[in-house]
Amino acid sequence: MIDTTIITIGASIIGLFFTIIGFFLKRLLSDLKDVIQETGKNKGKIELVQQQQMNDTKRMEAMTQLELKVLSENVSELTKNVNILVISLAKKGIET
């Protein structure tokens, strides 16, 4: 009778330990699954931000090229006007 009581108590304690270990393993696996999902979401967000930065850089590069082209055209036009002015002043200087 004492032997069966000890075996019953031991089995109950072992069952309780297995239940506790099972509970914590279930929580651990659930948390691990959540972390993996969040990591995937964060990776996607990071890739989206990187793509937006690349697009912004390309757009800024295109705008800079356009502005340089317009500036170059303006400088070219200004150079022509200065040459015409210098030639006109030179002609007036020669005529007087």
Main features:
mainly alpha; rod-shaped; 96 residues; 1 helix; 98% helix
Globular, elongated, flat, extended or rod-shaped: what is the shape? Answer: rod-shaped
In DSSP terms, counting alpha (H) and pi (I) runs of 4 or more, how many helices? 1
How many strand segments?
A: 0
- Helix-strand category: mainly alpha
**Major beta sheet summary:** none
As a whole number of angstroms, the C-alpha radius of gyration is: 41 Å
The H-and-E topology, N to C, reads as H
Strand content: under 5%
The amount of helix comes to over 70%
Overall average pLDDT: 92
Characterization of the model:
With 96 residues, the protein is mostly helical. It has 1 helix and no strands. It has one helix spanning 2-95. The longest helix has 94 residues, at 2-95. The model has no long low-confidence stretch (mean pLDDT 92).
Topology readout:
Elements: H1 2-95
Brief summary of the model shown:
The chain has one helix spanning 2-95. It has 96 residues and is mainly alpha-helical. The radius of gyration is 41 Å and the shape is rod-shaped.
